[in-house]
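Hi, here's the filled form for the chain we discussed.

Project: internal
Contact: R.S.
Residues: 130
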Amino acid sequence: MGETKTEGAYKAGNGKYVFEVDKLEGLMAGPGYAETFGPVVEGELTQVGVMTLPAGQSSDPHFHVNEQWVYILQGNLEVTVDGETSSAGPGGLVYFPANVVHCVAVSPEEDCKFFTCKDLRTGIAGTPVK
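And the returned structure, exactly as it came back:
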């Protein structure tokens, strides 16, 4: 797989340029603060994932050293970033700045599936706020 920042992630490049996401093995992307699960692929400067957070679940407040983008494919989220709460559904794009505390809550009706992209200053997981 090559060297990655995130254990279990796939490495892009060196002849690996196309990935069938639904056939990739996933990983827990929020250990200790969220039940987020899905495959992660890392390039030279960015990492991407297609993640699922189950219906009715939430993430505990956490932050990342790297900035993060989330594009919602399915489901609805209540998103709190730096104390401001908003709602986002399919087609919604959410920005989490580096080192800013945030959390999400998934509506109870259905799982939330989203595409995420981060720079590679660190791996996919964040740091819970205690």
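Let me know if anything looks off before we file it.
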